[in-house]
Amino acid sequence: MEISEIRILMKYEFHRGATTRQAVGNINSVYPTQAVTQTTVAHWFKRFRSGDFDMSNQPRSRPEIKVDNDALKADVEADSSQSALELASKFGVAKSIILIHLKQINKVKKLDKWVPHELKDEHKQQRLDACLSLLSRNKADPFLHRIVTCDEKWIMYDNRKRSSQWLDPDEPPKHCPKRKVHQKKLMVTVWWSSYGVIHYDFMVPGTSITSDVYCSQLDDMMEKLAIKQPKMFNRLTPILLHDNARPHSAKNTVAKLQQLGLETLRHPPYSPDLAPTDYHFFQSLDNFLSGKNFTSSGAVKTAFQEFIDSRESVFYTKGLNVLPLKWQQCVDNMGGYFD
């Protein structure tokens, strides 16, 4: 199906009053091989609401659309795992333009997340204070074995990478499939401790993690914790380590954490280098998935379970036991990034 036909379907869904999520579901249920993303539909619905029903591409002669840096900053901080290509598509500009604007708002990729290229003094101070406090607490009363940590990650269907090739002067390059801009992917949230994985949850395509979704996931995680790691649940009093993403810090999430009796470990903003799931679990997962190409969500989920099954218990212990070293490195660097 041509792109223009997909756009006609989006226009039809808009006129019939469908929400963005409903439109994604309706179109993908009929044309699964031409799957559209919620980001794409939201972009076109925004144009339709403004009265712009021209579904052709912008003429090349037109000047490049400017990006609102405030809007870009808000979007990146709402979901720091988005790729530059995804952001470019969302804002309707070329990747080169979005990279310019990301630089203007001082963002750079670190451990697969957008963070400030140069931390402000206030953020360095927050990191320094947090790490000093955590080092002092752990020295007085070691607590790494009580940590339950979590984070979210997009898993791509196609994890093959294009690489350079050594060829004779007259030898044509070997074919390597080019990664699509709008790659199919699944988001997974995983909870784990030094004793192993407690719970993981794959999001339904087209949906996103809200505070309500996160609260439901927390309930599921605590049920699994009581079964899989009863000592942690009953005797050790788990401490939750997660970042300060909006779903994690919303009012109803805070209320849910209080209801569950979960203490939240101090974690400064813009600090994936201090988050075990980012610097350890997901880094290892990326290596495991490298070169793999999946054709279905089931295959992605199977591969994720295979990754978990392939890890020995020392993998999880090591990931959390290195935290004091990370904290100390942050202190030694006066709150700045150290990798």
From TrEMBL:
<dbReference type="GO" id="GO:0042800">
    <property type="term" value="F:histone H3K4 methyltransferase activity"/>
</dbReference>
<dbReference type="GO" id="GO:0006303">
    <property type="term" value="P:double-strand break repair via nonhomologous end joining"/>
</dbReference>
<protein>
    <submittedName>
        <fullName>Mariner-1 protein</fullName>
    </submittedName>
</protein>
<dbReference type="GO" id="GO:0015074">
    <property type="term" value="P:DNA integration"/>
</dbReference>
<dbReference type="InterPro" id="IPR052709">
    <property type="entry name" value="Transposase-MT_Hybrid"/>
</dbReference>
<dbReference type="GO" id="GO:0031297">
    <property type="term" value="P:replication fork processing"/>
</dbReference>
<dbReference type="GO" id="GO:0044547">
    <property type="term" value="F:DNA topoisomerase binding"/>
</dbReference>
<dbReference type="InterPro" id="IPR036397">
    <property type="entry name" value="RNaseH_sf"/>
</dbReference>
<dbReference type="GO" id="GO:0000014">
    <property type="term" value="F:single-stranded DNA endodeoxyribonuclease activity"/>
</dbReference>
<feature type="domain" description="Mos1 transposase HTH">
    <location>
        <begin position="6"/>
        <end position="52"/>
    </location>
</feature>
<dbReference type="InterPro" id="IPR001888">
    <property type="entry name" value="Transposase_1"/>
</dbReference>
<dbReference type="GO" id="GO:0005634">
    <property type="term" value="C:nucleus"/>
</dbReference>
<dbReference type="GO" id="GO:0035861">
    <property type="term" value="C:site of double-strand break"/>
</dbReference>
<dbReference type="GO" id="GO:0046975">
    <property type="term" value="F:histone H3K36 methyltransferase activity"/>
</dbReference>
<dbReference type="GO" id="GO:0003697">
    <property type="term" value="F:single-stranded DNA binding"/>
</dbReference>
<dbReference type="GO" id="GO:0044774">
    <property type="term" value="P:mitotic DNA integrity checkpoint signaling"/>
</dbReference>
<dbReference type="GO" id="GO:0000793">
    <property type="term" value="C:condensed chromosome"/>
</dbReference>
<dbReference type="GO" id="GO:0003690">
    <property type="term" value="F:double-stranded DNA binding"/>
</dbReference>
<dbReference type="Pfam" id="PF01359">
    <property type="entry name" value="Transposase_1"/>
</dbReference>
<dbReference type="GO" id="GO:0000729">
    <property type="term" value="P:DNA double-strand break processing"/>
</dbReference>
<dbReference type="InterPro" id="IPR041426">
    <property type="entry name" value="Mos1_HTH"/>
</dbReference>
<dbReference type="Pfam" id="PF17906">
    <property type="entry name" value="HTH_48"/>
</dbReference>
